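User: Predict the full complex structure for these chains.
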Amino acid sequence: MYYSSQSLERLISELTRLPGIGRKTAQRLAFFILKQSDEDVERMAQAIVEVKKNTRYCSQCFNLTETDPCPICQDNKRDYTVLCVVEEAHDVLAVERLGQYNGKYHVLGGVLSPLDNSGPEDLTIQGLVARCKDGVKEVIVATNPSMEGEATAIYLSKLLKPLGPKITRIARGIPSGSDLEFVDEVTLLRAFEGRSDL
Amino acid sequence: MYYSSQSLERLISELTRLPGIGRKTAQRLAFFILKQSDEDVERMAQAIVEVKKNTRYCSQCFNLTETDPCPICQDNKRDYTVLCVVEEAHDVLAVERLGQYNGKYHVLGGVLSPLDNSGPEDLTIQGLVARCKDGVKEVIVATNPSMEGEATAIYLSKLLKPLGPKITRIARGIPSGSDLEFVDEVTLLRAFEGRSDL
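Assistant: Here is the predicted structure of the two-chain assembly.
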């Protein structure tokens, strides 16, 4: 026998569908929601519906946005000759948080991954190629340093170099605050390969 | 600078208010929601709103329910002379899952906790006293074995004994599958105190 309240059961099973949320956590969340005021609950439900309604992909960089083109693509103060290529929209956020990068972005929407049946046609590579023909001087490939991310970087480099721009890759090495002793061999090897003058 | 989508920011900040959900998790959940179909998203939002609308407390046992009295209180096959007193509605679920208990429940809605300013008037103790005068033969106090839970159990025992029913407390001891070596001293002491004939 489960809860005497069907609505509660329904909410719990809806929450269980979220990634990383099991039944116990869903239960805790549901009880929290029950204790909220009517307005708070209404606002949360609305935020969920509206995010689907209002958010789309930017037709230029494929970042998530409410306006098309997105504010970053519209911003004339940003350097359109530099493109930072990332896997997903949340990677844009990670770079933006630095407050140092002043170029534009291109969101691939994933990586090349033959095992998952994800090829070049599943990514926004066509758009990237078109942009590279349009005065872009440097493409910084900032895909993740995973196997697929590296493969995608190599693929992009081969594809885009003939079009003119310089293709660079963000450095892979030992993260700040880490310890040589605990770092895996691939990372350490990359750190040696990528060493710079002092 | 944050996401270019205000709706996305709004959803993330709404999700961050949930217990145990930080910004990174909220972000992951928001992206998951974005990838869902319109109907799925609509259904989740509705479940959130409806749980508030449809769920109330049972006027007899204070369990969460859609009907008043709740299905357990309405069930004539259950033994109304035995009451299991628990802290919260989810504790009812835990006991019900056993499938062994056939009495009724009383949900306190918390525990006595002077530090949190929670006294007897904040719990459903008045209703419990009224029910105990009405043919109840045994009250099983199943509050948690925390400091506050134990204090509440002692308080209830003193309050209800003069009214007639037998007051019992669920056993505290070593959990099944555990190891003497790793159990804390209070638990081990309780296990010795509560030993039974073999």
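The mean pLDDT of chain A is 89.
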